[in-house]
């Protein structure tokens, strides 16, 4: 789920479109009883046969060793690397046997992905991000990062795209390390990219499909309801926020719209829960909104200055209270809340309840 933002309608439309393109159809997994068991067994058998097939020369999991990625993640992997789709949206973690992206997921669900274009990378990059390539790329094997650090690699060109994607090109090939789902730095991602470049012509003896069955089992165990309001009942909201009038809890597309009574009368909040790939969503959106706030200030020549985001402690791993929305993340689930005057304690209560509900509903 990508988020719809009142202040950034154009960006939101793009985000929703990208997510829709990457959302897999998991309806078949809703069967019950023996049929579900048979389907799971068949899928596992198929994955096992494919895992033992001849190595795919363009398998993205053949570019990095587990040890190299674990050193950057700061934890052991929860299972073997697996092939999947691009890390956009909350469905990106779903494994795909022909996936062009290799996922490395740590025991805490933080993750890093690797992908490559073995040919025509220059033309692809120029067509997709011409302005970005001209503005942020570096050649000659040296890339100057935002903090002033000069990163040296064996690439012909390198760039950092957006918040957390490091791309390096060598000849007509390229690799990309997406590190938004982790706490890795640009420099660490650049080191991984440099190692991956060296293996484009001499890949590791690894089969990325070997980890797909285990990855599917892990994702099946997550609590990821389709109802955006599944995390709160009317009784929950009234108990958490008080008020004499009963709150109204209703779905609004991918958001949950909640109207409640408080000291200032009737108030409204809009909440979006991203039940998968939340670490990446949290990091990307914080960077995006920080940039948007700076842009608004610059466009208005300083006459309009939005406040900077601040870190907030609470029942989460991390949270930022920004000028556009409140973002929190826990266990790879991110929650965004837009409101009109809620107290920090009220926000802690509503978001904390959702995180607890998610943890309780996850399958053991």
Blueprint of the fold:
Blueprint (H helix, E strand, L loop, with lengths): L8 H14 L11 H18 L14 H8 L8 E3 L16 E5 L5 E7 L3 H16 L1 E2 L2 E3 L5 E3 L4 E5 L3 E6 L2 E6 L7 H13 L13 H9 L13 H8 L6 E5 L2 E8 L2 E10 L3 H22 L10 E2 L6 E4 L4 E5 L2 E7 L4 H18 L3
Antiparallel strand pairs: 1-2, 2-3, 3-9, 4-7, 5-6, 7-8, 8-9, 10-11, 11-12, 12-16, 13-14, 14-15, 15-16
Helix pairs in contact: 7-9
Task: Explain how this protein is built.
The protein has 364 residues and is of the alpha+beta class. The protein folds into 2 domains: 9-14 and 223-361, Protein Transport Mog1p, Chain A (3-Layer(aba) Sandwich), CATH 3.40.1000; 46-220, Protein Transport Mog1p, Chain A. The chain is 35% helix and 22% strand. The chain has a 7-stranded antiparallel sheet, sandwiched between helices. It has a 7-stranded antiparallel sheet with strand order 10-11-12-16-15-14-13. A two-stranded antiparallel ribbon has the order 5-6. Strand 10 (248-252) and strand 11 (255-262) form a beta hairpin.
